Amino acid sequence: MPVLVASDLDRTLIYSAAALALTMPDARAPRLLCVEVHESRPLSYMTETAAQGLTDLADAAVFVPTTTRTRKQYLRINLPGPAPAYAICANGGHLLVDGVSDPDWHRRVTERLAGECAPLAEVQEHLLRTADPVWVRKHRVAEDLFAYLVVERELLPGDWVKELGAWAENLGWTVSLQGRKVYAVPKPLTKSAAVHEVARRTGADLVLGAGDSLLDADLLLAVDRGWRPAHGELAETAWTAPGITALPERGVLAGERIVREFLRTARGTAGGAP
């Protein structure tokens, strides 16, 4: 039975220059591999060691990138190793099979959202009305499923995020602050539901996972073993759960450690050397 590895990407496996957390002396900094270019500029990185580990993981497990990114944002990432047969985008709104969204899965998701939470238009209107242009740089709607703001973090009032979360809770939505983005996402739109579907299709009997943000909590609750880095929303709130290991590493070295844990566990399960 295959091992399934479902991992968040941004600030879990891949890192922007601002999120690398290279606190060691320059001469001891790890070699980096650029895995994403946007508008002709390098955007996201892994260590070369993590990249090799991710390539090796393809022989030991079914690797499923599991991201809140839209399909377009995901497809510009060039991960090392073979192209994943499955990928989860838009926080579970799209299940990609060989790079193409499964229409039946997407239909099931949208039907559930329509029946269980307030419409996107209501949330979007609230964001436009209450967010201050002084600290908002962009308003975005992702895949007609959820909304997010790009903000100036140093100007963003912390109380505003808390008030938005309380307001959204009553409508069946959740709020997450990740880097310079404030996400408003319907509660039924989850990574875990899509991961369960991939596990069913592949027949996996062991599911591993990793993530750093509030939107990854349901994913980590759904896996058999999981890891979170020492940065991000989950670390800031000391979030934990059975089977979840809180790692001491931060930044891109946390990504390297996570890949190492995936590989060690998958190989051990398959009877190979840890």
Structure characterization notes:
By secondary structure, the chain is α/β, with parallel strands linked by helices. It contains nine helices and 15 strands. It has helices at residues 48-57, 71-75, 103-116, 120-130, 158-169, 191-202, 217-222, 233-236, 252-269; strands at 3-7, 15-16, 32-38, 41-47, 62-65, 86-89, 94-97, 100-101, 136-142, 146-151, 173-178, 181-186, 206-210, 225-228, 244-246. A five-stranded parallel beta sheet has the order 5-1-13-14-15, sandwiched between helices. β14 (225-228), α8 and β15 form a beta-alpha-beta unit. α1 (48-57) packs parallel to α9. The radius of gyration is 18 Å and the shape is globular. The two termini are 18 Å apart. The model has no long low-confidence stretch (mean pLDDT 95).
Question: Secondary structure elements and their pairing?
Answer:
Layout: E1 3-7, E2 15-16, E3 32-38, E4 41-47, H1 48-57, E5 62-65, H2 71-75, E6 86-89, E7 94-97, E8 100-101, H3 103-116, H4 120-130, E9 136-142, E10 146-151, H5 158-169, E11 173-178, E12 181-186, H6 191-202, E13 206-210, H7 217-222, E14 225-228, H8 233-236, E15 244-246, H9 252-269
Parallel strand pairs: 1-5, 1-13, 13-14, 14-15
Antiparallel strand pairs: 2-4, 3-4, 6-7, 7-8, 9-10, 10-12, 11-12
Helix pairs in contact: 1-9
Protein name: HAD family hydrolase
GO molecular function: hydrolase activity
InterPro entries: HAD-like_sf, HAD_sf, TPP-like
